[in-house]
Amino acid sequence: MDSFRDKSAAKQAIPTSPNKPRSTKWHRMYFFLAGFDVLVVVLSVLLNHLIVDTYHRSIKANQSWVQQLSSYSTLGSLASTVNAPGNNVFDTHNVEAESRNMNEALRVFNEHLAMAKKQLEVRIAHEAEHSADIQAFTLALKDEVGAVDAAMVEMVNEALLIFSYFREGQSDNAGKRMATMDRKFALLLASLSTVRDRVGLIQSKLLEEELESVEELRRVEYAIMVFVLLMVSAAMIYGGKIRREMESQAAEREGYLAVLRESEKQARQQASLLDKAQDAIVVHGMDNRILYWNKSAERLYGLSKEEALGKSAQELIYQGSAAFNAATNSLIETGDWADEVTLRRRDGCTITLESHRTLVRDDDGQPQSVLSINTDITHRKTAEQEVQRLAFYDQLTGLANRRLMLDRLQHLLAGSSRRLHTSGIILIDLDNFKALNDTLGHDRGDMLLQQVALRLCGCIRESDTVARLGGDEFVVLLDGLNENPPEAAIQAKAIGEKILKSLNISYQLDGYEHHSTPSLGIALFQGQLSTADDILKRADLAMYRAKAAGRNTMRFFDPEMQAVATARARLEVDLRQGLQDNEFILHYQPQVNSEGRIIGAEALMRWQNPERGVVFPGEFIPLAEETGLILPLGRWALQAACTQLVAWARHSETARLGMAVNVSARQFHHPDFVEEVLQVLRYTGADPKKLKLELTEGLLIEDMEGTVAKMIELKEIGIGLSLDDFGTGYSSLSYLKSLPLDQLKIDQSFIRDVLVDSNDAAIACAIVSLSKILGLSVIAEGVETEAQRTFLVKHGCQTYQGFLFSPPLPAEQFVEYVRERFMASTDFPWTKTESP
Ligand SMILES: Nc1nc2c(ncn2[C@@H]2O[C@H](COP(=O)(O)O[C@H]3[C@@H](O)[C@H](n4cnc5c(=O)[nH]c(N)nc54)O[C@@H]3COP(=O)(O)O)[C@@H](O)[C@H]2O)c(=O)[nH]1
User: Fold this and answer.
1) How far away, in angstroms, is 568 Cα from ligand 1 center?
2) What is the ipTM of this complex?
3) Which whole-number Å values give the CA distances from 360 to 13, 286, 354, 389, 824, in the listed order?
4) What is the value of pTM for the model shown?
5) Whose CB has fewer CB within 10 Å in the chain, the N or C terminal residue?
6) What would the pLDDT profile of 692-714 be if each residue is shown by its tens digit?
7) Cα–Cα distance between 684 and 602 in angstroms, integer?
8) How does pLDDT run across 68-113, given as a tens digit for each residue?
9) Taking the CA atoms of the chain, what radius of gyration do you get in angstroms?
C-alpha cells in the first residue's frame, strides 16, 4: 500500500510546493520590469530624436536668419551704391553716366530686395511652427522691409530730380535738393537698420526658444536615463533571482515528475495486485472521499469503482452512521481500528465485515488518508449465530435454554457477592400442562408454551432473563433488586403478581380457548456462598409449596420473606382503605422555648385502624411514599393541621401558636405542591405566617434549582421552612448557604446520647454554631431529660421538642396541656435568629 502513499504524496507535493506562489510573483515582476524597460528605451529614443531634431531645426533657422541678416546688410551697401551717383554728379557733372550708374545700382538693389522679400514670405508661410512672438516679429519685419522699399523710392526720386536739374543747368536748384536727398538716404539707412535689428531680435528669440525646449527635453531625458538605470539594475538583480528560481523549479518539477511517473507505475502494478485480493480494500481521505476501491470492494458492496470514487465513504458504505465518525476519531487517536461492522448493502442484503482501518500519515505526520481492509464474515457470523442459537436457546420458544440460564445465574451470583443489591429467581411451572398435552395434543401444548414465553417477556425488564428449562418449566432471573431483602422481596412479589396475572389470561390455541394457571417459586440471594444449583433447588421447593397451596399462586423459599411480602401487600391494601375510611388523625407535640413556654406544635400523623389499632408513621409512611399514597395523605395532613391552626386562632391561649407540618420528598417534588399549599391556606383561612414546613435533607438531593425555587415561593407567601433531621443526611455548607431556610432541627439521634457521647455533643454544638453563622434559628428534637435541656441551653440552643415536655397529643389533650401552662408571648421564633 506504499504506492498509495507515494503516489498521493507526489501528487500533493507538486501543487503544494511552497515556491510556487513565490515564483509566480517573480515572473510577474520580471515581465513587468522588462515591459517597463522596453517602454522607457522607446521613449528615450524618441526624446533623443526630438532633441536632435530641435537642434537641427534651430541651427537651420539660425543659418537662414544669418543669411537674411547679411542679405539686409548687403541691401545697406547696395543702397549706398544707389545713393552715390546723386552725390557724384556734383563732382563729375556727367549726368548721363551717373544716371546710368544709379539705375544699374537700383536694379541690383531691387533684385536683392525682391529676393529678401521672397525669403521673408517663405518664412512667414512656415512661421506657424514657431511661437506667437516670433510670428508677430516676422510680420512686423515684412512691414519694415516695405518701408525700406518706400524709402528707396523716395531717395531715388530725389536723385532723379537732381539729375534733371543738372540736365537743365539748374545746378543751384540741384544743390538745394542735395540736402533733401541726403535726408531721404538717411531715412533709407534707418529703415534698413530697423530691419536688421528686427532680424537680429527674431534670431535671438528663436535661439532662446529652441534652447528652452532643448533644455526641457534634456531634463526629461536625464530623468528617463536615471529611471532606466534603476530599472535595468532591478531587472538585473531580480532577473538573476528569477533565473535561479526557475532553474531550481524546473529541476524540482523534473524530479517530481520522475517520482510521479515511477509511483504511478508502481501504483498501477500494485493496484492490479490489490484487485486480485479477496478482501475489499478501500482508501479514503480525511474528508471521507473515496480514493481507492478495489475489485473485491465492487463485489462486496455492490458498487462499481466509478460509482464509489470521490463519494463519501460514510454516506456510501455506512449510510451516514455516526458510529463511522466515532471509529474515525478513535482511529486518529490510536492509528488503528478494528471491529466487526454490520451494513446494509444497496440491494438490501445485510453483510457483516471484519474491518481493519489504518491511518496513513504524510511526511509531516499529519493524517492523510485511511486504508480500510474489509473481510466478508457474513457466512461465518450466520453459522456462529446458528450454533449459538442451537446451543443456548430453546428451539420452540426462542427463550434462553437451561445452559444459558445457568451461565447468567452464575454471573448474577458473582455480581451479587460484589455489589450490595439483591437478585432473585422465579421458577414458573404451568399447572396441569400434562393434561393439556394429553387431551389437545402436543401441537397445542407447544402453542401454549410459545404464548407463555411471549407473555413472560412482557412482564420483565430488559436486564432480566426469561428461560425455558424444558417441558412447562420456565425461569425468570431478576437482577438489581433492592439491597434491603424485605424491600427486594416486595419487588420480586410485584413481578410474581404481574406474571400470575398475565399467565391467567386465556389462550387461543388454534381455535380453542384454553385457560392455564402457573405456580411460582421465588428465591432471593445476596452474595451468599450459594451455588446456582442450590438456588434453583430453593426456587423449586418454593414452587412446590405454591402447588401445595392450591396452585395458581406464588411462594417464597424463605418463610420470613414470604411473611414480609404478604404483610407489605396487606398494609398497602389497608392503607388505601384507611384513606377512604378517614382512619387518619393528627397528634400535636409541643415546641417549647428556653423559658418553658409553648411556641407551637409539630403535627404528627397517626393511623387508627380497626384491626391494627394505632399505627405510627414509621410503619406506613415509607410504603405510602413508595406507592404514591403519600400525596393524598400529605395533602390531608396539611389541611387538617391548617384547620387546627384556624381553630386555635379563635382562642386566646392558643391564638399565637405556630404549626410545623412534615412534608415528604415525593410530596414536595410534585409539580403542584406550592399550588396545593396555597389552596389549603385559602380553603382553611389559616395564617401562612403560623405555618412551618419541615423538609428533610434527602429532599434536597434531587433538582436543587427547582427545590430552591419552590422554597422561595413558599417563603414569599410567609410560610416558615425548617430542615428536619439535620445532621443525618448530606449536609453541606455550600447547599445550606443557598437555601432560603428559617430553622435547623437537630436530629434526635444526636440528642439521645448528647451527654454521654462526645461526638454527638460536638455535632449538636456544631449545628447550633452553624445556625448562628447562617442566621437561622435552631430547635432540638427528642429532648427527654432536664440534663439534655440544660446542656442545650448552655450551648446556645433555646427551642426544644421532646418527651421532657410532652409526647405528641390528640388535639383536645394538646389544648388542655397548653392551658395548663403559660403561653409564650413571643412571635414565631423560627423566623428569627436566636441569641444565646
Ligand atoms: N410526611 C409526613 N411524615 C410524617 C407525618 N407525621 C409523621 N411523619 C414522619 O414520621 C416520623 C415519625 O413520627 P412519629 O412516630 O410521630 O415520631 C415523632 C415523635 O413521636 C418522636 N419524638 C418526639 N419526641 C421524642 C422523644 O423525646 N423521644 C423519642 N424517642 N421520640 C420522640 O419523634 C418524631 C418526630 O420527629 P421529627 O418529625 O423528625 O421531628 C417523623 O419523624 C416524620 O418524619 C406526616 O404527617 N407527614
Assistant:
1) 21
2) 0.95
3) 16, 10, 19, 40, 85
4) 0.47
5) C
6) 999 988 787 778 889 999 999 99
7) 18
8) 777 777 888 888 888 888 888 888 888 889 899 999 999 998 988 8
9) 64
